């Protein structure tokens, strides 16, 4: 596979309509917000989960595109499996076995060679620093979390049915954001890609995941979520040509309407003062 020889910085812009993009389990699953200014937040872990799910659908967990962190996975068992490989077993020193196991895990699991992982449990396979890193997403403007009462016309047990005097109604709560546009920033390191074996094919798959992951993640709770813009800054060398923040500052936004925003048409996203056309744009950095 082709090795990555360039550094990349990127900006992902997506929106949510009538949904909860990332509930906080410590706050009753309320949408995450910055307590000081009301800006909506989505964790990097949330986006990585969607990337993993997309790769699972596209590659069907076939190695070398298997997913390490997935539902019901027993992580220690997967690490122990690496130590059953003949190359790993042939190593005599403990540290050599761990290093060989780390390389085996990178080779077989897409999310490890992409995002990295701590593999110091079970028989251990060291620690992997992933070449792809994401920040928290932050909404362009403050968001308002709405609380909705909902009912379920059924009960789980006969005892519950008797206690409700024949009315099989269970009350609940649901939280949504009417509308919000979120922006996340990301980085791809050519140096770390060489250490994990993250290839150009892996990178192309990652870009596809960012563009299409919401199309395969629909649910009533998340409402309507869509990738609107993916701006990729491609440097001409592994070390890069300019600081990431200087590139990110080239992206500006402005409102096209007054009052509360309710659609992406209420915003204009610009690069160097010009409106960005299409969903994906690759910018060469010299």
UniProtKB/TrEMBL annotation:
Fetch the Pfam families from UniProt. Answer: Cas_Cas7
The molecule here is called Type I-C CRISPR-associated protein Cas7/Csd2
Organism field: Methanimicrococcus hacksteinii
Q: What is the lineage of its organism?
A: Archaea, Methanobacteriati, Methanobacteriota, Stenosarchaea group, Methanomicrobia
